[in-house]
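Sequence of DUF1624 domain-containing protein (Spirosoma aureum).
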Amino acid sequence: MQSFVSTSTAKFQSIPVASGRLLSLDFFRGLTVAAMILVNNPGDWGHIYAPLEHAPWHGWTPTDLIFPFFLFIVGVSITFALGRPDGAREGVIIKIVKRSATLFLLGLFLNFFPRFDISIVRIPGVLQRIALVYLACSLIFLKTTPRQQITLLVILLIGYCLLLTVIPVPGVGYANLEPETNLAAWFDRTFITPAHVYKPAKVWDPEGLLSTLPAIGTGLLGLLTGTWLRSNRSAAEKIAWLFTAGCLSTLAGLIWNGFFPINKALWTSSFVLVAGGLAMLGLALSYWLIDVKGYRRGVLPFVAFGVNAITVFFLSGLIPRIMNMIHVAQADGTEVGLKEYLYRSFIVPLFGNPVNASLAGALTFVLIWFGILWWMYRKNVIIKV
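Predicted 3D structure, token representation.
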């Protein structure tokens, strides 16, 4: 992979990133995807360290930041993919729609597999939300200016806040932010129906319809960040203002939390600002260290995750399900899925603490994927969706 950046500088210089890719962006994407795989594949769902779990409702944990970080990165990536001279060529919108449809269908396939029961399949999901945010942000990027994008972001965040805190929920009679009686949950029950939402929640979906609107706001923060990074300003100015914007966004979200609580499941406006601000800070730090200062040690393993992000996310969700379809007999005569059998046989005996064993199982899964992705990276095998 070619870095379009000087690898060693005594002081900040202007960096031509109007085309090509930022190594720091691939690194940040890869770090996010690796973290996503880690939290999605514990050895034992009953034993997980608190920071690796989602907040029960209001509030946030490090795990809650992973998905919005990825959507933020989607927004940044759009500016590099569509901001090139050929970005406005005829047919680009058709390609955007096709890619969005592919992402949505991949997510739907994961929800179908292995039962393929259309009567109870979950329709929303992570890849489905990525598809919708990518579609909306791509079209917004092509059709609007950065000033208009800021205006749209403000309208989305304030409008969503008013929807959930002012409009009475049908059948309930008042606005509220409780799990099953808020307006977003009502939308899911009404337009998706309980049979097709997230089964543990039963009557609402964490990637539901209404909460996709502020999720688009997360993508818009990425668009604005990517546009800033692609500008002709000096690296010092880019980094200084990006750190400033990240701090201000995080602070604004924490203040808004007092009125509209940070909540990942509802994707509240305060959550958008806090997660988006922290993502700006993370990308700014990565950009400074990797693309400006030329720091490379420990970077490439995460780049390997980053360049095949959707592929590894999809397969890391599919393969464990296939493994658990293969039943293996245990010493007591019972049968368990192959994945669980391997975990119980080779991971659990090495750790006395079940929480440590669960974490070790997740890390083992990540390391296996690193081996696969590192080979793909060295062979320049990049699967584009």
